[in-house]
Amino acid sequence: MTDDDLRNRLRRTDPAASLAPLPPDRVSRLLEESMSADVVALPARRRLLPVLAAAAVLLLAGAGWLVFRPSSSPTPTLPTAAPVHLAAPAGGQAKCREPQAATLAENADFAFAGTVTGIGDLVTLQVSKVYKGAAASTVQVEQQGDSSETLMGSGKFETGKSYLVAASAGTVLICGYSGEADAPGLLALYEQAF
Could you tell me where the Basic and acidic residues compositional bias lies (predicted)? Predict the structure, then answer.
């Protein structure tokens, strides 16, 4: 197909081919108007259509949220499982270096926040948050023996107090890694490590 064949084909399909050409002054004026116009106003129906479409989308999204929103029923309780058992750190004389978040993250295989609910041969803590390790609702910790290093804070578990406790291989980590939740710097250490 040549260029002339293509031009002839276009002329045959042109819907305005039978119309008389516009006078040159009218073509110039129309061209000037189209080039200098700031905004071409859409007919009212065309401007209204996007607004109606947006309103319909919002209405459907709101209805979907109402149908599929979370229920306001109380949070189910965790199933009761056997409590986690942790050993007290070995007694003896030890000196510790300043606790580091990286060391805590690397060495602890279980870390949690909990409140002491009972003290006997074992200290029972109700878990409020597990930072690392398997989910647990109750943890039992052996009482700490004689050691120069103890839990941060008072150095011992007390009923009703909240604690942050980390453990490695089933033994509580001391040296600034476990203690009363409000002990200076302990919560920040946990948040940085986990």
Answer: 1-14
